[in-house]
């Protein structure tokens, strides 16, 4: 059915100029203004023309959708105004007709300003000595909404909506100009996508879903009339209120107008008016706390996505602008995680049945060669409801401060502003990798004593965890047994600052004042304890750093997405400093160390896991020799514990995946987990890699060259 009334709009075209002039004259009487003359008038006219051109291309804010890896399952949405832009062809003709009947009977007969409507409003307002009737056409209303939606400052919002004569005249001028730029169908489409219907429903897609749980294309005449009636006053005519009397009266008014315009027959309207308003209310999910319960653990991935997004220059100049773009830009975002790997991670850190402990056990799995995060799980429930949590274990937290378990939304695994946890001997990877990249060999030998006094580090004297670690060590045995004195000596040889800078190139960031001070250019070369992992780090950082070693020294920035699409379906892009346009969701990788150095580090890193290196010997025992048997394929990695076992770590990797797991009390780092729980991260990583790679072809690591073996 045509959207136009039975009387052809073409008959009214000759009346445009005379009618428009009469309308502006009436408007000048009805809404008096101080005349604008001279340069000011020209400047104002130019500004209006520029703004009109902008509105001709501007689109309203639109909801962004976060999808599961299948690209189809919606996990949640991000919005300030729930809206999905919908083409006119996907909107029921009944809805198109109903909004014209409700708001602008003469929409197809005027050219932006309706002279008859202005005159009618002038007479009504004069009789009431006030403003009892408006004269805004659909086009004028759209101009007002578009100005409001495109406003970037509170002042612009106020100017767009202020009830002032000058605003009204500008609105009329812009409406007339806009109808020269856009067709009636274009204006109607934009209006229906901009109007507010109440219940946080912006635009017809949101209104159809929230009130009737259907698409705009499926709306019946009665449903369309109900929604069209809301635009005038969403709260007054709210059909979801306990009393539907006013909503029903307004709906019937719209139905009567639809009959008068020839859209519906009198008989069908009479029958429709006897129907009650039947709603099927739906409230759309918003933000990460709305991720469905069955995928609760995915909320942490969602939260990481938000933190990652807020750091991307592609979406704005600062954090607030970027998050605003997320909530208004209409993006389609697909998570990078793998459901199979995520399920394995959740199972092996006890996300379902082990959430009642102050000790957080978390794991992050990253993909070498892409940096994509494949899993992120922790023994916590992702929830904002923390009132029932026990009190914090930190005596310095103050009274009535709740602990982070069982419920939390804190980014315990990284990607946010929390510093992380001391990672212990997992940091030995960085001086070893730096030494290999600097030309040292795997067979670099040192007679490591139980205790070693460092003159370079001003007499600092660390010792080993066990006397069995003393004696002649190479990189293989030193790494496999986690010999502190060997690695302090090795760090001296290559320079602590070189190890620190390499860690930075592999994605580590210093988030505490102490770490920042030690990592500073003036202090880094004296940071002897760096190799022992006294700095805080997150599982996300450590998984991604070790993933770079698995990828032959090629570091890829951690990334929570596999795809990001703009509202028009094109991939979201950004320009590099060199002016090259790239997709935001594409891996961003760079070679940090030579492939041979990375392969050599991997060969040594097979020793801690009970695996057999390709080129050397591990010295008879290792710190996590059960891992190889559990994973059932070539695997490398490193254990890490801190003083008094306040936290324990294991980072492990195969050619396909890298995983980092920790156990610690995020509320109180002095609450030691104890030696008895140090095996938990080892088991979490080993079991997760085993389950994630089940059924996959077995791949071996590429051995290092003879030159770097030494």
Automatic annotation (TrEMBL):
Highest taxon of the lineage: Bacteria
Bilayer-spanning residue ranges: 12-34
Domain Penicillin-binding protein transpeptidase: 363-667
A GO biological process held by the record: proteolysis
Entry's Gene Ontology cellular component terms: outer membrane-bounded periplasmic space
Gene3D superfamilies per record: Biosynthetic peptidoglycan transglycosylase-like, DD-peptidase/beta-lactamase superfamily
Ranges for domain Glycosyl transferase family: 75-258
Name listed for the protein in its UniProt record: Glycosyl transferase
InterPro entries, alphabetized: Beta-lactam/transpept-like (IPR012338), Glyco_trans_51 (IPR001264), Glycosyltr_51/Transpeptidase (IPR050396), Lysozyme-like_dom_sf (IPR023346), PBP_transglycosylase (IPR036950), PCN-bd_Tpept (IPR001460)
Catalytic activities: Preferential cleavage: (Ac)2-L-Lys-D-Ala-|-D-Ala. Also transpeptidation of peptidyl-alanyl moieties that are N-acyl substituents of D-alanine; [GlcNAc-(1->4)-Mur2Ac(oyl-L-Ala-gamma-D-Glu-L-Lys-D-Ala-D-Ala)](n)-di-trans,octa-cis-undecaprenyl diphosphate + beta-D-GlcNAc-(1->4)-Mur2Ac(oyl-L-Ala-gamma-D-Glu-L-Lys-D-Ala-D-Ala)-di-trans,octa-cis-undecaprenyl diphosphate = [GlcNAc-(1->4)-Mur2Ac(oyl-L-Ala-gamma-D-Glu-L-Lys-D-Ala-D-Ala)](n+1)-di-trans,octa-cis-undecaprenyl diphosphate + di-trans,octa-cis-undecaprenyl diphosphate + H(+)
Organism: Micromonospora maris
UniProt keyword terms in alphabetical order: Carboxypeptidase, Cell shape, Cell wall biogenesis/degradation, Glycosyltransferase, Hydrolase, Membrane, Multifunctional enzyme, Peptidoglycan synthesis, Protease, Transferase, Transmembrane, Transmembrane helix
UniProt similarity note: In the N-terminal section; belongs to the glycosyltransferase 51 family.
PANTHER family: BINDING PROTEIN TRANSPEPTIDASE, PUTATIVE-RELATED, PEPTIDOGLYCAN GLYCOSYLTRANSFERASE
Molecular-function GO terms, alphabetical: penicillin binding; peptidoglycan glycosyltransferase activity; serine-type D-Ala-D-Ala carboxypeptidase activity
């Amino acid at each position: 059915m045509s959207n136009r009334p039975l009387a052809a709009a073409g008959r009214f075209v000759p009346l445009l100029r005379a009618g428009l002039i009469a309308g502006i004259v009436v408007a000048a009487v009805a809404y008096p203004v101080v005349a604008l003359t001279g340069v000011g008038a020209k400047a104002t006219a130019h500004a209006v023309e520029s703004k009109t051109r902008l509105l001709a291309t501007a689109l309203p804010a639109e909801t962004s959708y976060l999808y599961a890896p299948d690209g189809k399952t919606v996990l949640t949405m991000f919005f300030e105004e729930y809206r999905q832009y919908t083409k006119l062809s996907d909107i029921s003709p009944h809805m198109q007709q109903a909004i014209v009947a409700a708001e602008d009977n003469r929409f197809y007969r005027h050219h932006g300003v309706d002279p008859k409507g202005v005159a009618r409003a002038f007479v009504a307002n004069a009789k009431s000595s006030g403003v009892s009737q408006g004269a805004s056409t659909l086009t004028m209303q759209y101009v007002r909404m578009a100005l409001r939606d495109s406003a970037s400052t509170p002042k612009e919002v106020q100017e767009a909506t202020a009830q002032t004569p000058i605003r009204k005249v500008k609105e009329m001028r812009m409406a007339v100009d806009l109808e020269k730029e856009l067709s009636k169908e274009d204006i109607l489409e934009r209006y229906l996508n901009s109007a507010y219907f109440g219940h946080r429903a912006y635009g017809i897609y949101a209104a159809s879903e929230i009130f009737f749980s259907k698409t705009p294309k499926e709306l019946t005449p009665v449903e369309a009339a109900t929604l069209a009636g809301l635009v005038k006053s969403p709260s007054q005519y709210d059909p979801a209120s306990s009393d539907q009397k006013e909503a029903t009266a307004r709906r019937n008014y719209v139905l009567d107008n639809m009959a008068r315009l020839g859209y519906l027959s009198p008989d069908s309207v009479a029958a429709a008016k006897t129907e009650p308003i039947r709603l099927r209310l739906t409230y759309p999910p918003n933000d990460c706390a709305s991720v469905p319960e069955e995928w609760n653990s995915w909320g942490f991935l969602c939260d990481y996505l938000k933190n990652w997004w807020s750091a991307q220059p592609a979406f704005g100049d600062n954090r607030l602008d970027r998050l605003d773009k997320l909530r208004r830009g209409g993006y389609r975002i697909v998570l990078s995680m793998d459901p199979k790997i995520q399920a394995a991670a959740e199972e092996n850190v006890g996300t379902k049945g082990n959430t009642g402990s102050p000790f957080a056990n978390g794991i992050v799995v990253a993909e070498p060669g892409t940096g994509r995060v494949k899993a992120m799980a922790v023994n916590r429930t992702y929830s904002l409801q923390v009132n029932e949590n026990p009190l914090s274990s930190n005596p310095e937290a103050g009274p009535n401060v709740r602990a982070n378990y069982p419920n939390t939304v804190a980014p315990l695994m990284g990607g946010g502003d929390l510093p992380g946890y001391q990672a212990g001997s997992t940091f030995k990877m960085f001086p070893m990798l730096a030494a290999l990249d600097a030309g040292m060999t795997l067979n670099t030998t040192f007679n490591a004593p139980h205790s070693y006094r460092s003159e370079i580090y001003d007499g600092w004297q660390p010792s080993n965890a066990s006397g069995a670690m003393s004696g002649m060590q190479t990189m293989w045995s030193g790494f496999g047994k986690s010999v502190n004195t060997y690695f302090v000596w090795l760090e001296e040889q290559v320079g602590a600052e070189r190890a620190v800078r390499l860690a930075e190139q592999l994605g580590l960031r210093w988030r505490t004042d102490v770490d920042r001070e030690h990592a500073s250019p003036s202090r880094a070369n004296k940071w002897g304890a760096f190799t022992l992992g006294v700095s805080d780090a997150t599982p996300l950082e450590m998984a991604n750093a070790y993933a770079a070693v698995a990828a032959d020294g090629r570091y890829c920035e951690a990334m929570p997405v596999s795809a990001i699409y703009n509202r028009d379906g094109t991939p979201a892009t950004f320009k590099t400093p060199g002016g090259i346009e790239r997709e935001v969701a594409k891996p961003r990788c760079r070679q940090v160390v030579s492939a041979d150095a990375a392969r050599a580090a991997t060969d040594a890193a097979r020793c801690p896991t009970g695996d057999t290196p390709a080129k050397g010997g591990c010295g008879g025992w290792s710190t996590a020799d059960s891992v190889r048997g559990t994973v059932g394929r070539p695997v490398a990695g490193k254990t890490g514990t801190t003083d008094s076992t306040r936290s324990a770590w294991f980072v492990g990797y195969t050619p396909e995946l890298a995983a980092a797991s920790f156990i610690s009390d995020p509320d109180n780092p002095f609450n030691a987990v104890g030696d008895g729980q140090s095996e938990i991260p080892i088991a979490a990583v080993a079991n997760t890699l085993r389950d994630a790679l089940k059924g996959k072809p077995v791949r071996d690591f590429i051995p290092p060259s003879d030159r770097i073996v030494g």
